[in-house]
Amino acid sequence: MISVMDGHSVTLQTNTEIQKEDLLMWKFGAEKSLIAEINAEAGSFNTYDVPDGRFRDRLELDKKTGSLTITNTTTEHAGLYLITISGKTVTEYRFNVTVYDDVFCCDSTEVVIRLALSALVGLATVVVLVYDIRPRRSRHHSNNREQREVQTNSRRTGVHAAFNCQGPPRGHTSDM
């Protein structure tokens, strides 16, 4: 099964190379309507439309491989495609094509814009986090530095600070 999004192109690959005696016939649907034909010996390469006009100006044939490209697909292009390659041997390939309409999707320009905006938002988030964490670390480091300085000075002078961050020292009573 081959899936394609509405409005996009799909190529049905034959994975072969046309030989000079080959006759290729592409057919579509349960009715097996002829939509493309290659007669290598006569040098003719033709695409045909079906009565409802769904393939008008949408079919392209690869003249080397016989692959069929359907451009600007719609849900009308979903269905069974059959290619018969007749030459020294007869080979058939079947392709079941589904066309889906992604109402939440967008064109390629909008996708690029959305990706760029997402990247910028992600980058801005990282910058904010880094600058938010950095001041906290520096405050934490400066508090530790001040505590070390108080301890160092108290060792030198023999005077201990009456209060630290945790409250009064043990054994200290309040005069209130």
Task: Output the keywords.
3-stranded antiparallel beta sheet, alpha+beta, 176 residues, Immunoglobulin-like, 2 domains
Write the layout of secondary structure elements.
Layout (H helix, E strand, L loop, with lengths): L1 E4 L4 E3 L10 E6 L4 E7 L4 E4 L11 E3 L6 E3 L8 E8 L3 E11 L7 H50 L19
Parallel strand pairs: 1-9
Antiparallel strand pairs: 2-7, 3-4, 3-8, 4-5, 6-7, 8-9
In a few lines, what is going on in this structure?
The chain has 176 residues and is α+β, with helices and mostly antiparallel strands. The chain is built from one helix and nine strands, in the order βββββββββα. Helix content is 28%, strand content 28%.
Task: Describe the protein in words.
With 176 residues, the protein is of the alpha+beta class. It has two domains: 2-100, Immunoglobulins (Immunoglobulin-like), CATH 2.60.40; 106-157. It is built from one helix and nine strands, in the order βββββββββα. It has one helix spanning 108-157; strands spanning 2-5, 10-12, 23-28, 33-39, 44-47, 59-61, 68-70, 79-86, 90-100. Strand 8 (79-86) and strand 9 (90-100) form a beta hairpin. The longest helix is centred in the C-terminal third of the chain and has 50 residues, at 108-157. InterPro entries: Ig-like_dom_sf, Ig-like_fold. Keywords: Membrane, Transmembrane, Transmembrane helix.
